[in-house]
C-alpha cells in the first residue's frame, strides 16, 4: 500500500481501490474489497517499518498474525521516501510528524479506524506521533507498539553496523545506478558495515528498465528525503504524549535485550514512571523486554515477538 497517497489524489474511493489493486500497490496480508453490511467492520492493525526499510520487511510476520487472527486485517505501509511511495514526490519537510500525517490521511481515505499500531524504530515514533496528532480516525481503545525505540533522544551504536546516519551518508556517495548488487555489498563491507546490513540494504535495489541495455539497478528510495527523516527521528521528542497518554490509549514499549546502547537507564525509569501515572488517568503505558534479540526484533526473535504482540489481538476483538 502506498503510504503517502492522499484522499484528494484520487477521484473516488472505488477508483482508488481499483487502481492500487491493478497496479500491485496493495500489500495487505488480509484484505477484501467486498463489503457485507451485515457483518461488522474487521479490526485493523497498521504495521510501520523503520528507516531504509519498506512494507515488505513486515510481510512474513504479518502473514503469521493474519493466520493466527483471521478476523483482523493488516495494513502494511511504505512510508514516504521509501519503497513504492518514493516515486510519489512529497513536499517537505520530511519528518516524523509529516510521515504520521501521511498515514493518518491514508487510513481516513480508506475509512479505517486502526485498533493496533505497530512501529519498528523510526516507525515507532511515527505511531506515537499519530496518537499525538489525532483523536480520530484512531479508535478507542487503541494499542500502540513502539519496537526498540524511545520517545526522545536516539542513541545509535558507536559502530557502523548499527548507525543509520553513517549508513545513509555512505549510501549517498554511491552511484544512483549500479551494475551489480554484489558490488554494493562488497563496498559496504569494505566500509565496515556488517554482511547482514549490506544484504538488507541491497534489497532496496530494483532492476532498471532499459531495453537493449545491460541489466542495472537503481535505488527504490529517496535518500535525500530519508536523511531528513532520520534527522527528525533523532531530534523528535514525544515524551509528552507518553507522560500524558490519552484515555483509551495503551502505549507499549518493547526493548530488545541486546540493543543496550539505545536505552539509557533514564529512559527506562521515565517509562516506568509513566506506567504508574497513566494507570491513574485512564490510559496505559507498559514496558516489555524481548529476549535474545537485537534491534531487528522481527528477524532476531519472531517467535518471542509474536507471543508478546498477540496479547493485543486477543484482548481487542
Automatic annotation (TrEMBL):
Domain of life per record: Eukaryota
Keywords of the record: Hydrolase
Domain AB hydrolase-1 residues, every copy: 46-306
Segments forming a coiled coil: none
This protein's record includes keyword Hydrolase: yes
Molecular-function GO term, any one: hydrolase activity
Family: Belongs to the peptidase S33 family.
Name under which the protein is recorded: AB hydrolase-1 domain-containing protein
